[in-house]
Amino acid sequence: MSRHSASTGDEHRPTGAGSLAGALSVSPRGAVGALALLAPAATTLLRVARNAPTTLPPVVADAYPSVALAAALGPAAAAVLLGALTDDVRERVGLAFVGVFGPAGAFVPAAWLPAAGAVVGGTALAVYARRRRLGARRFAVAALVVVAMAASLAGAAGVASVTLRPLGSTLALLGVGLAPAFVRSAWPDWTVGALAALLALKAGLSAPFATGAVVLVGGAVVGTPLPVVALAVGGAVATAAAALRRRAPEAAVGVALLAVAGVPATLPRALAVCVGVDLLVASSTGGDRP
To answer: What is the DSSP letter of 109?
Structure first.
């Protein structure tokens, strides 16, 4: 996909013990993103488990409210911290809006609408701040994710929800499917991603009701064709594989956040998507440099 990535680490590949150290090294942005990933990932797993035909241990079931709370506060704090790590004032302001106003709307119904606007606008500003270094293709993918966020939240607010909810869902999964644009993928990454997509497609065809329930409960996917769901799975796996192979943990964490957040139809999901797309964009444009 993209032939230019300033953060892949290919220019100076360490060898031997240095190679292991290089593979395990995580930048401040990557560390912040990894911490932000924990609660949304746990929340998604718990959502699916709570709706599965099994009985969870009481301690696990009772933990859901606390984990869901952390799934909103964690990415919000991460957005503020990521803003503090950048030298670009526009990106800093955009991420501050996301981190400050997003949680308020998640817990105060009266603040939901202005908070949703702040999250969408803040994410858009953070992406726009890096548009020149992103290039047309990567900027288009990042903008697609922002549009998906706007459509999903508008549909959740009751604005043409019959149209915007499926549209936002499809655009969000297309954004995940096109995430390899942010890393330099090679044939091993495409192979792993293609296998993952085929497995997702096979699961959807052989067990459509179970697959539909999982993507609905876990990812808030509504009205999206199965091939698009499979594309999102393949794109996420291919991106993660390329990012890990090229020692770009920020990109790996970023696409993982997009995957576990699913469709940004709620503010906690949108907060996770904001952090994910910012990590992908920053990783592909040189980290903290605007």
So the answer is: G
Radius of gyration of the chain (CA): 18
| All residues at 6 or more sequence positions from 195 whose CB lies less than 8 Å from its CB, including other chains | none
Question: Which uninterrupted H or E stretch holds 243?
Answer: helix 226-245
Through-space distance between the first and last CA atoms of the chain, rounded to whole angstroms: 22
Query: Among candidates 28, 26, 9, 25, which has minimal Cα distance to 85?
Result: 28
**CA 35/CA 44 separation, integer angstroms:** 15
Q: Kindly state the percentage of the chain with pLDDT values over 70.
A: 89
User: Distance (Å, rounded) from C-alpha 236 to C-alpha 56?
Assistant: 29
DSSP string, 83-98: HHT-S-HHHHHHHHHH
Within a 10 A sphere around the Cβ of 48, how many other Cβ atoms? 16
pLDDT for res 106:
84
Question: What is the Cα–Cα distance from 76 to 67, expressed in whole angstroms?
Answer: 14
Phi-psi region of 209 (alpha: psi -120 to 50; beta: other; left: phi over 0): alpha
Angle among Cα 112, 117, 121 to the nearest 5 degrees reads: 150
Which residue type does 64 have? Y
47-53: long-range pairs with CB below 8 Å, 24+: 47/217, 47/218, 48/214, 48/217, 48/218, 51/213, 51/217
Q: Is the pLDDT of residue 95 over 80?
A: yes
- State which amino acid sits at residue 94: G
Task: Judge whether 272 and 79 are in contact, CB under 8 Å.
Answer: no
Q: How many angstroms separate the Cα of 75 from the Cα of each of 26, 37, 68, 118, 222?
A: 18, 8, 12, 15, 23
pLDDT in tens, 240-267: 999 999 888 999 999 999 999 999 999 9
